[in-house]
Amino acid sequence: MEAQKRPLAANVVNIRCGGVVGQMDGLLKNSLPKNDPKLLKRGRDSPPNLLQKKKKNFGVAGGAAIKNDENAYDPTRTIETKIKNIKISQKNDLPLKPLMINNNNKKQQNELKIVMQLDKNHHTAATTKPNVEKQQQPSKTVADDDKKHRIDPKDYYEPPKNLPADIIDYDRTQLENINSEPIYAFEIFEYLREKEQTTRCVKYMHQQKEISSRMRTILIDWLVEVQQTFELNHETLYHAIKIMDHFLMLSQIKRTRLQLLGIVSMFIAAKCDERIYPIIEDFLYITDNSYVRDDIIKMEIEILQVLQFNLNYPLSYSFLRRFARVSSQTLETLTLSRFILETSLMDYTFIDELDSKMAAASLLLALRMKHLQWNKTLDFYTGYREQDLIELAKRLNQLIKPVNNRQQESIRNKYSDSVFFGVANIRPLDDI
User: Fold this and answer.
1) Distance of CA 167 to the CA centre of its chain
2) DSSP letters of 126-155?
């Protein structure tokens, strides 16, 4: 750094002094003919001639005119503009030697000093008055500027339409929560409620020749283990099953490729929902190398072509989290409803139910099992009344009852762990 700074500083000194330039002009005059056009032009434009030409506008008598003329000639304006932002550390730079000035140019140097001194006086006089006025004004602190430009979310928030007066506006309470998006949350879930009508699954097993609902149950039970092994988000599991079901709605598949469909659906969902998703080799390993890399890539292309890259599906898990938050449910109650909802993924008979209704029914059953009640807040935010969910809650209650010799127990074993409060061990209701 030191070696780079020193030439820069030396160039600046040479430019400001101007003596070297005058000396070079003298050498050129002796070496070129008198009538040489280059010499004539260079003589007219040389710094000494320019100073003599502009000198008439400067002087003690002309000081008042300079003060009033903002466009007056300033021999240092261009140089100062170029170097005003250059910062040179005195600590790192070596001291510069003063330039040797020829005696023939001392007169020119003195004239330049007079002009620079007059310009300095002019600059001081021009800036003195604004500084006085600035001191008279009250000083503004940084806090005042921040307060002036600070955007208050409360100014932009609009409560949901038709919100009853006796229901707490949950999103308003989250305006200061940086991990939430309360201004758009209600509209987002209204949009998802509309979208789930157009992306609703329909039963498809009647058009599949080589697979059955039993095979689907076994595959999803295995995908739950894959999700735990790779520590993927729950949204990834729900999204993968959604992709798989929509593919089977539109295309037939052979039995030998069903596992490949499941693992590639998980791969695509992980790309959408995970910050860091498993690579292809990880999925090959989890299948015990039953497939090769090209099989996964070709299957991924086939899925995306069949679905026409429409991968944005409303998920029942997202609805469930929203419903539990707005009603201020405990984490244990939420986990119990997650166990109920996740168990329903393996049952083919629930495939054509709306995701929002499945989430609401799972939460209702969890509330009943925890001896809690459905309330008006859930009526408003879910869009369902309690009587609308009773029949679906009864089916879910029957589904989670323990069955002897059931082989697909991955979800029950998962939620029997203390990490999930052991909610799978809570006894289902005898009647709901």
Assistant:
1) 33
2) HHHHHHHHHHHSPPPPHHHHHHHHPPPGGG
**Distances from the Cα of 72 to the Cαs of 62, 75, 281, 339, in angstroms?**
11, 10, 75, 83
155 HSE (CA, 13 A, CB side): 3
Neighbours of 136 (CB within 10 A): 7
Cα separation, 23 vs 267, whole angstroms: 77
**Token pair in block for residue 407:** 């082989």
Domains 186-307 and 316-425 fall in the same CATH topology: yes
CA separation for the pair 286, 282 (Å, rounded): 6
Q: Are 226 and 410 in contact (CB under 8 A)?
A: no
Report phi then psi at 309, rounded to 5.
65, 20
Q: Is the pTM of this model over 0.85?
A: no
Hey, what CATH class is 186-307 in? Answer: mainly alpha
Residue found under tokens 């500027």: 145
Give the tens place of pLDDT for each residue, 223-264.
Answer: 999 999 999 999 999 999 999 999 999 999 999 999 999 999
Tokens of 307: 């679905």
- In the block, tokens 């008439």 appear at 56
Per-residue buried b or exposed e for 378-394, using 16+ beta carbons within 10 Å of the residue's own CB: bbbbbebebeebeebbe
The length of the chain in residues reads: 432
CATH of domain 316-425: 1.10.472.10
Classify residue 123 as exposed, middle or buried by CB count within 10 Å of its CB (0-12, 13-18, 19+).
Answer: middle
